[in-house]
């Protein structure tokens, strides 16, 4: 309790004492008047009233009644005063308790706010430290990755140089070294996408150098050339911005089954007797190439360039020649059973020898979906078929225009 609040309380206590004394004195006066008031006021002595003093008794009774009423009123006022004093005291106490409770609440809130602020500051500091640790870890990881990449690049470069060195060994007895170089390049190509195109071009150049056409009747493909072909045929499937150039190469009896060599340039190359079963050769260039006696069952030649390609006795069972450019292609004696020719251009292609031998295995239904001209050499049973004859006239009309 403060000094400011103690001073009014002192005055209230003093006022209460004075008021109490005043009320007590007033009560004493009323009591005295109650007993001796008639005698003092009217000269009537209540103790000596007889039967014949009725009017005086009435006066005495009225005066006493009035005094009694005053006394009761004073008592009521006193009770009201003390009730009010008690109420004010209790109210003041309640207000003090409320003020104390409010003060404690404010102190508690302030303490909580302080604690919350400290917690937030600690959390922000911890978060900042965590972010710094993460950034440091990220920088360290980047540095580690850069060092690892540099080390990896250095290793790949070293491996590449060794592989090229082995590949360049052209001694007669260095076949094993060249094979080791080829397979080393295959591993590097699988590990490094960045070196993919370089290695593909290098292997293609190796094939062109070591598989040159030297005579009409050459030897089967060399082991190291076959190894390079196999690596190219099974290379990782990645986007390439160039065409593999295997033109003017002698690839007789090469093993290229299921090879993935789309768009490859085989112009003027010899693939006689090669195994092309299921090979992927769409959009490949076979201009004036030789595929005599090659096995190409199920091979994909869609949209391939087969102009003047020699395919004598080719096994093209189930092969796909859709949209292929096959003008003047030589298909004498080829097995073309179940092959697809939808949209293929077979203008002046040969399916039979001029002497009637080497008849290609093909039927009318297969050729009705292709462009067949009057100059296309077909077996008479096919060419004289009314449906095929009408188809040939329609194709020639589209190419040469209607007859005048």
From TrEMBL:
Highest taxon in the source lineage: Bacteria
UniProt keyword annotations, A-Z: Membrane, Transmembrane, Transmembrane helix
Gene3D superfamilies: E3 ubiquitin-protein ligase SopA
InterPro entries reported in the protein's UniProt record: 5peptide_repeat, Pentapeptide-BTB/POZ_domain
A Pfam family recorded for this sequence: Pentapeptide
Keyword Acyltransferase: no
Transmembrane segments: 12-37, 57-83
Protein name: Pentapeptide repeat-containing protein
């Amino acid at each position: 309790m403060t000094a400011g609040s103690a001073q009014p309380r002192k005055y209230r206590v003093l006022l209460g004492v004075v008021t109490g004394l005043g009320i007590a004195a007033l009560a004493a006066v009323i009591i005295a008047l109650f007993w001796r008031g008639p005698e003092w006021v009217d000269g009537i002595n209540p103790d000596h009233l007889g039967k014949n003093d009725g009017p005086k008794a009435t006066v005495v009774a009225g005066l006493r009644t009035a005094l009694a009423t005053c006394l009761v009123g004073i008592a009521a006022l006193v009770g009201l005063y003390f009730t009010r004093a008690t109420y004010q005291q209790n109210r003041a106490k309640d207000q003090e308790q409320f003020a104390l409770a409010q003060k404690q609440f404010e102190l508690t809130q302030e303490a909580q706010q302080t604690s919350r602020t400290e917690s937030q500051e600690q959390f922000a500091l911890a978060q900042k430290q965590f972010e710094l640790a993460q950034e440091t870890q990220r920088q360290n990881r980047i540095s580690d990755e850069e060092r690892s990449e540099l080390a990896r690049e250095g290793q790949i470069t070293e491996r590449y140089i060794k592989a090229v060195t082995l590949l360049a060994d052209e001694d007669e007895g260095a076949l094993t070294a060249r094979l080791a170089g080829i397979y080393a390049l295959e591993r590097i190509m699988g590990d490094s996408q960045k070196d993919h195109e370089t290695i593909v071009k290098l292997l293609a150049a190796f094939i062109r150098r070591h598989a040159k056409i030297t005579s009409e009747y050459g030897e089967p493909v060399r082991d190291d050339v076959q190894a390079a072909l196999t690596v190219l045929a099974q290379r990782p499937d990645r986007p390439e911005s160039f065409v593999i150039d295997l033109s003017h190469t002698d690839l007789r009896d090469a093993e290229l089954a299921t090879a993935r060599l789309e768009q490859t340039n085989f112009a003027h190359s010899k693939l006689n007797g090669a195994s092309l079963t299921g090979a992927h050769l769409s959009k490949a260039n076979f201009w004036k190439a030789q595929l005599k006696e090659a096995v190409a069952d199920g091979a994909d030649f869609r949209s391939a360039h087969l102009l003047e390609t020699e395919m004598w006795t080719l096994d093209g069972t189930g092969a796909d020649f859709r949209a292929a450019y096959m003008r003047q292609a030589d298909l004498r004696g080829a097995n073309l059973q179940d092959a697809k020719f939808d949209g293929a251009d077979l203008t002046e292609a040969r399916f039979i020898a001029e002497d009637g031998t080497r008849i290609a295995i093909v039927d009318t239904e297969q050729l009705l979906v292709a462009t067949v001209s009057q100059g296309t050499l077909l077996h008479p049973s096919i060419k004289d078929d009314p449906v095929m004859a009408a188809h040939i006239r329609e194709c020639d009309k589209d190419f040469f225009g209607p007859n005048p």
